[in-house]
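Homework help board

Subject: predicted structure for assignment chain

Our instructor gave us this sequence and asked us to write out the predicted structure in token form, then describe one feature. I got the tokens but I'm not sure how to describe them. Can anyone check?
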Amino acid sequence: MQRDELIWFLRRYKLAVQSTVSPDGAPQAAVVGYAVSDDLEIVFDTVETTRKWLNLRADPRIALVVGWDDAVTAQIEGVADFPTGAELERIQACYFSVYPDGRDRLSWPGITHVRVRPSWVRYSDFTQDPPHIVELPLP
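My token output:
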């Protein structure tokens, strides 16, 4: 699997399970709606009162799983950040292309957008025998 194939796969879905680590070391997971940029950045919105936001501010490491319905998944680990200025506008445009209603949430108190840059990806297709499992090289 190549990088462009991974982007295509991720764009087939709209939901991911994301996991973060709380300050006391406990794992915490949530379902998020996401978009994927041409540069393989995963973008979602949240508010500054959520556990995921608080966790990512303290420790930006994040894990996501996409695509569990069809026995084909992508497991992703990476680092999250909270862009500002022109970078924020760029990732918001990516997110709004998938979730146009995200513009309405801009009026919510504490709304923010998270960008995840993957550092490790494992693609698994369990519809084949034997299963096709590959780790993608990332910069």
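Reply (TA_rk): Your tokens look well-formed. For the description, you could write something like this. The CA atoms of residues 8 and 36 lie 9 Å apart. That's the kind of observation they're looking for.
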